[in-house]
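#struct-help
A.M.: can someone run this one for me? Single chain, 359 residues.
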Amino acid sequence: MKIAFYAPMKAPDHPVPSGDRLMARLLIEALRRVGHMVFVASELRGYGSSPDTFPERQAAGTAEAERLLTEWRGSGAPDLFFCYHPYYKAPDFLGPLLSSALAIPYVTAEASYSRRRGEGPWAHSQAVVEAGLRQAALNICFTQRDREGLRTVVAEERLAMLPPFIDCAAFTLARAGSFPPRLMTVAMMRPGDKLESYRFLARALRRCLDLPWTLFIVGDGAAGDEVRSLFADFPPDRVDWLGERPPKDLPRILAEGDLYVWPGIGEAFGLAYLEAQAAGLPVVAQAVAGVPEVVIDGATGILTREGDLDAYAAAIRRLHEQPDLRKTLREQARRFVFAERSLDRAADRLSALLARFEP
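D.P.: on it. Structure tokens below:
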């Protein structure tokens, strides 16, 4: 099929790297891998950090939809409109209008919905999301948490699951393990949940300073100075700041580690966890949001209760002190990602889900 792909949160070629951008690119590659012709419908950003921008974003979306409708009627319409990650801050102003006008299926992936956003300042934006979900012929969910939210407005037969996935091709290396363990973290440095995760991690590691380890941090951003200040009182040989690195370097960097530590506050699921496991790193994270969808507690890592700093520090200590357990989890983590969460596996699943819409 000819598929129009749209990501209102962040276009696939947006200059700022993120898990959201990566997943958009992975979905496009998965669709192409099974023979679909995919093109980015628009780079218009529907995201707004404040509900006050809704009228302006809605007007821009309507104008863009009208432009595309004219263009597609002249050059040939797509067979399907695929929207990735619509939610109350980034509604899809294009897909529902275009799909209705052209009489083509509308499909969403990783949409999220919460009734509490239906009241208050975000109500207008949430109404757009809800209307799109109701119109969609299929809503593809990445986590059970999102599926439960969508069930409140969408019939079960128009919901389907697609577990988060990555391209495993670059993860050819894996360490045999070393001592002292090399702890790894890959995360942007920005205010909000990311900064809070760094804060939580620093507090936990401060309780483990009696153990020998080095933490390697990949990432930078607007909150970089504040993040670095959280570790300022650590001995200088304990934290190695690697800065922001291109995605192509991450498999090699991760393969040099022994343990991936990231609390995951507010993570939708976290593709970085899958990348770490593909490189053979057991994960220590919290059992919050969508993290349990990508890390299997006791099999590919250890998940602790949300906000339990003692348990989180104890999990790091346990894996530090038990190299045999690290080895077992390392092997299981790689096997899990390569067997269950690969790009090829996802492409086959997507192909099966979309087969009903093929002409």
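A.M.: thanks! The chain has two domains: 2-165+343-357, 168-340.
D.P.: also worth noting: The chain has twelve helices and twelve strands.
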